[in-house]
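Bumping with the actual sequence this time:
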Amino acid sequence: DNALVRSTLETAGNGAVLVVDAGGSMRCAMVGDQLALLGVRNNWAGVIMYGCIRDSGPIAGMDIGVFALGTHPMKSIKKGAGDADLPVTFGGVTFVPGEWLYADEDGVIVSEAPLL
């Protein structure tokens, strides 16, 4: 369900990164080009997706960083399920709202304080 992802990306990101725990699902995409474009328009720096995205080609050309487990052509259902502003753990990392996240093509680092 990506309804909460959409509603979050519709808000002002102020350079933040949205971290989504989609349970590692490979059954559908949680973000596509239209949601990524919302992120760009609303000043989100990136999306870390523990699940799949679609429209990876167009997203690659956008001014937003997106990490995902993979791609899937099918959209997700929309029921409004999910929680926001909670710590989530996947990939051996706990992501805590308000902490600093740095990413490049080699990976992601999370820190309690700014590194720069």
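The tokens above came from a reply further down the thread. The mean pLDDT is 95.
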